[in-house]
Every structure is written in C-alpha cells, then in structure tokens.
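Collaboration report, partner site 2.

Our partner group contributed sequences for two proteins of shared interest, and the home lab folded both. The records are reproduced in the order in which they were received, starting with the first partner submission.
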Amino acid sequence: MNWQCRRAYFDLPVRLFVIPSDVACHAVALCEGGTNLSLYFDNNIPQQRETTVDMTTGTAAAKITIMLRFTKMNGAGNDFILIDNRAGDIRLDRSQIARLCDRHRGIGADGIVLLEKPSNRADFRMRYFNADGGEAEMCGNGARCFARFANKIAGAQKKISFETPAGVIAADLVNDLVTLKMTEPTDMRINMKLPMADENKTVHFINSGVPHVVIPVSRVDDLDVRREGSAVRYHNMFSPNGANVNFIEKRGPNKIAVRTYERGVEDETLACGTGVVASALIFAIIEKANGSITVIARGGDELQVGFEKNDNQFCNVTLTGPAEFVFEGSIEI
C-alpha cells in the first residue's frame, strides 16, 4: 500500500500501531475539529522503525513514539547493538546511546554499531559508538559483527569492505568466523616510562585503529584491571582523549592471554578486537615472534592475529575471530 499523503481520522481515545516497511518515521500529527486527528505519512521510513501514535482525550494531543529495531550480537563476548541506518534517518544522541547500552535499563551492550551507506567506493559505512555515547574510530570485534550483520540484512557477499574513521576495512566471512584486514598500525612506541604514584611503569603504545597501551605482566588473572587500567587510561601522557589499556601474559612462543580496560566502556570487557591486535603486535616486537599470534580473550575465545613484519614495521595485519547473533527486538527511543 502507498501511504503517502493518506489522511486518517480517529475518534478519541484510540491507540494506533503502524508497522509497515514504507511509512514515514517523522509522522506529523495535526489537530482538526476538536476530537479528530489528521495524520500524514511520507514513505521515508526504513524497515527497522515502528511508529506508535497515542491520542489522549479532551485535547486531541498526540504522542509520537519511535520503536527502534535492532539486532544483538557479540564477538568473543564483546557485545553490541547493531542497527540498519542505510536510510540515514537515525540520529541517536549520547544519552540515548548510553540508555540503550545500559544493562539494567536498556538492551545492554558494550557499544552500538550503525550500518550506513558509504561515501566512497567501499560497500558500506560502519559507525561505532561506545557505551558512554562517544563515537570511536574503530572496533575490531564490532567490525566482525558488522560484516555478518551486513551479510544477513543487506545481502552482502562473503567478501565485503566498509569505511570507518580509521580507514577502509575488508572482511572475509567463513561460517561464523570473520577475518578482517585491518588498517596499518601507527605511532608505535616501545618501552615508554610512565610515571605512576609508586613507580615508573614500563609500557608500550600503538594505534591499531584506536590508541592502545600494552603492559606485559606475569599473571593476568591476578590483576585488578578496572583499578590499574583506569589509572593508565586517564594518565596525563595520553590526554586529552585517553587510551585503552591491555595487560598481556605470555602463554607460549606465539600465544598470549589479554585483559583489556576499554575507554568509553570505562571497565574491563570480555574482549577488545583492536586491543587483541595491539597486544599481538607489541608481543611480536618485544618477543621477536614471527607468524600469527593466538590471543586468549577474557571471555575464553581464541582469536588469531596475522601480519607481515619488517623490522618494527607491520603490514597486512588481519584479525580472525567469531561473530555471533544473539537476538533481535525493538525498543522505544
């Protein structure tokens, strides 16, 4: 049915649910003749929206409620809300994002990933927002989920590309595993001295799409990651934007365990894709390791980081790991 410019009249009180795929997301409610309401729709709504109109008695007022459709996914335990925004009409503010990510009052997630139309020659555009509502340049686990989401709802092929603020990312899908070709890392700094309250801590730094500090430790299981990670994340040396903080433990010649404190989440997460990459590359430098590195995330999943190394320079960096669908739903925003 074509809903454009269609007028509908209702006696009050009434509750109308409109859930087609082609109705405008910006429904206009106009009062006519006291107890009648005139509604106009303009065909610009994407499939993930539902429009609910509540009309109260007496004043013929209308409340427009937007129901946002979403898909919940996780990559190695790092969980995300995926939203199809190819129509470009979804504009969430920081408070809305924080509420959606709230694990008690919302859906619950480490961040929100938007699927959008590209502005360059890539197949899609990915936008990522942390749980605090701030937009980040890149998220490795979110990017793997993004690739499978695009394959499912947009009919993307098994090999796709998508633009991010960190650069264009390529993805290769094999069942529930996704291999990302990452952007080349930058700004690597080895053996930095970080003045702390009780010591000068030796740390390493690399930007693997977003900034990461990497700190080798003897046992990751013994750490208070939230306390120690927060102290480094907010250190003046990394201001004003701060950095993610990874603690790594050597488990073999080409194997490490990692725990990550993520900025924006402001806590430890079960996995961090760009943190896994950063940790593996720093480990390859300080341990002079060659070949792919196996990384055990806090959630127990093992991810693989591949690369080519020439002295201390890296190219053709890849990240391989799972991306799983959890559930779908809709929520009022």
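Second partner submission, folded after the first:
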Amino acid sequence: MRVIAGTYKNVTGPVQELVVDVEYLDVRLKAGMALSHDAKEGYTSFCYLIEGTGDFDGLKLEKAQLILFTEAGSIAVKAIEDIQYIFVTGKQLSEPIAWGGPIVMNTQKELEIAFRELDEGTFIKKKRKTTGREVH
C-alpha cells in the first residue's frame, strides 16, 4: 500500500499542504485478502478499482468501477481476485461543484479558466517531485 496524501498507520504521504483533511491511498490486495477503511463523520469516501474484481462493502466491483460512500463507518474490502484500487476520503466542504471531465472547480467560470490554462500549459502552477511512501 502506498500513502499518497494524509496519514495511514503512522505513515504520512508526500502530498501535503492540502486545504482539506484527506487520505489518499493506493492499495493492492492479493485474492482472498481483506482490509477495512474508516470513514469519519462528515467525510465522503470512494474506492476506484484499477485492476481485478473485489467486494466493496457487499457490492462487487470490477475494473474501472467506482463506489461512493457518504456515511460514516467501516468500509470492508475483500479481493475476489488480485486487485489494485484507490481509496480516498476527505472532509466534506459543502461547496458548489462544477465538474468537467478530469477537472473539478466551484463554478462554471472557474472550469472554463482551468481548461483554458490546461490548453495554454499554465494549469500547473508549481511542479513538485512526489512519490508514494510504502506502508507495511
């Protein structure tokens, strides 16, 4: 498992200086293995399955499927076959959302500016070297 952002089992990911409390994990499980994730009150969580087939809180997911969790509690994951998935949980902001493909902003105007900056090559303001840290 790699911690991308946030802290998991005393390992802090390299992505820091985030505005909101978030945990972002890259998880790999062998067939038959199980893991649970805690979803706090006031947080939204999701799992996106990159490879394999798994059981996510009683629902079977296959490659390229996502499941969203809006309630607090424990999220149980079991690998039906070898899986890789992203787990993300973050504090709800209660802000408006304007979504356009891979970019999410607060307003349609901000979304238009973001796509223009993407086209112009100015969307990324500051480049950083980031690599995940392993959790054992």
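Feedback sent to the partner group on the second submission included the following. The longest strand covers residues 43-51. The two ends are 7 Å apart (CA to CA).
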